[in-house]
Amino acid sequence: MKTEIIIVGAGHGGLVAATKLARSGFQVVVFEKSERNKLSWNWKDCLDLEVFERINLSRPKPFEYETPANFRFFSPNEKNYIDTDVPPEEREKSMERRLLMEKLLMHALDAGVDFYFNREVSGPLLEGNKICGIKVGEEHHYADLIIDSAGFNSPIRPNLPSEYEITSNLADGDYIYAYRGYFNKKQNKRFWDIIIGYKNKRGISWLNTSSKDEADILIGSVHPFEEGEIEALVHDLRIKYPVVGTELLRGGQVELIPIRRSLEKFVGDNYAAVGDVACMTNPINGSGITRSMIAGDILAHNVIKARKNAHNTYTTSILWPYQVEYFREIGAKQGYIEVMKNFLISIDDFSKIDFLFKNKLLAPNDIITNLMGKELNLGVGEMLWRGFRGMKRGDILIELAHTINTADKVKKHYLNIPHYYDRHKFLKWKKQLERYVVKN
Ligand SMILES: Cc1cc2nc3c(=O)[nH]c(=O)nc-3n(C[C@H](O)[C@H](O)[C@H](O)COP(=O)(O)OP(=O)(O)OC[C@H]3O[C@@H](n4cnc5c(N)ncnc54)[C@H](O)[C@@H]3O)c2cc1C
Q: Can you list the domains of the chain with their CATH numbers?
């Protein structure tokens, strides 16, 4: 089969791009390994509902989503905490993932996208050193452009020829093992506690009791779990929080989430990646739904623009503006957040985080600002006051100041990505980025 555009995996960004492209007259085919009614996970996740407007899909009705409780962040010793106080209208909303997928799928079908469900893609088809299609079992399917939206375990990105200069395998610490389980709720309480470095594991864990009947547990660790470890950690949480019952209602598995800056390069000849496969998640909390959807919109916009300019082949240079636009809107902030995340969860001495929390050297607004990737603009008075409170551990203050400074540099560097694709300029840009972010 030959078509104009193949989308590998019905991920969020892939479906958004597929819809927009099909509406513009492109022939678009999606290959998805799951069944039609089993797309994505059977649990709720948070997203920014503004994104629906952007993709021209009607906003979910109020009964289709919930407003979760505000976050309370705990430091690793679980004694010190910081409460956030975001007004309900500004909080992200929590929605059943399968309902969201159904909406995106119907939108795509309505636009004329063709779907093949239960079809697992096994790898790229190559012509010389360029991708020209995909393999599905014994079948070969060809396309002018292959959009990789297959999530963390994509069969395409790691198998691209080295000439693409796209990262094939993520380094340890660039992704997190996330256990998710929904248990029955035994008390009528409503809170969302997030613990950094729970039980001294490098990662973030939470107990979210925002829903009426379910206690949602997430345990995230940059190291794989050992046998019996999850059960022990859930048991500990149950002792600390009697609201958590013993009946597992849904979930109960471990999934992988990227928690790093977006890939330095995620386009190549006839290829563009979107979503988790390109590491488009927030490095602190792992959220990637809204970001993937925005990226899908940017990608489709640029492909449509390319055709209007009479470009019929999708070279790296033609697809490059997608990457530049993504960095400007999201990727630069994501780079900032990665540096802050490395400071918060990758250090070995958790007492530093305890000290920052205890002495209120981190404030609620800092955490929210960090999650959004904005710079921390502290006035001179506030800086002096925090310096005074942190005097006992000047080393930590210096480290924090250095981290914020590096985060700013990384953000600016992402914004300075070469506007047009020039391999040498790109490699120089990437090398400088790695100087800021990669620790030896
Ligand atoms: C426990 C957990 C909690 C999370 N909570 C949140 C949250 O609250 N908010 C948020 O924004 N994000 C959250 N995320 C992250 C979020 O899931 C992703 O960022 C988001 O799903 C975007 O991923 P994607 O669309 O790129 O890929 P995916 O959602 O992984 O979709 C990939 C699709 O490709 C298909 N596929 C894979 N391989 C193949 C193949 N070989 N052939 C054909 N099809 C294939 C899959 O079946 C799937 O349908 C969470 C993730 C986890 C694991």
A: 2-56+94-168+263-332 (3.50.50.60), 336-437 (no CATH)
Q: Among the atoms of ligand 1, which is closest to the Cα of residue 34?
A: 47
Question: Is the pLDDT at 69 greater than 90, yes or no?
Answer: yes
Q: Which residue is closest in CA terms to ligand 1's atom 12?
A: 287
What string of H, E and C letters represents the secondary structure of the chain? CEEEEEEECCCHHHHHHHHHHHHCCCCEEEECCCCHHHCCCCCEEEECCHHHHHCCCCCCCHHHEECCCCEEEECCCCCCEEECCCCHHHCCEEEEHHHHHHHHHHHHHHHCCEEECCCCCCEEEEECCEEEEEEECCEEEEEEEEEECCCCCCCCHHHCCHHHCCCCCCCCCCEEEEEEEEEEECCCCCCEEEEECHHHCCCEEEEECCCCCEEEEEEEECCCCCCCHHHHHHHHHHHHCCCEEEEEEEEEEEEEEECCCCCCCCEECCEEECHHHHCCCCCCCCCCHHHHHHHHHHHHHHHHHHHHCCCCCCCHHHHHHHHHHHHHHHHHHHHHHHHHHHHHHCCCCCHHHHHHHHCCCCCHHHHHHHHHCCCCCCCHHHHHHHHHHCHHHHHHHHHHHHHHHHHHHHHHHHHCCCCCCCHHHHHHHHHHHHHHHCCC
Residue 27 CA, ligand 1 centroid: distance in Å: 24
Q: Please, which pLDDT band fits residue 346 given cuts at 50, 70 and 90?
A: low
Of 271-275, 357-361, 389-393, 401-405, minimum mean pLDDT range: 389-393
Å from CA of 115 to ligand 1 middle: 18
Atom 14 of ligand 1 has which residue's CA nearest to it?
287
Atom 6 (ligand 1) nearest CA = 287
Tell me the mean pLDDT in the region 375-400: 66
Please identify, by atom number, the ligand 1 atom nearest to the C-alpha of residue 276. 26
C-alpha of residue 11 to centroid of ligand 1, in Å = 6
**What does the pLDDT average to over 185-208?**
93
CA of 199 to the centre of ligand 1 (A): 27
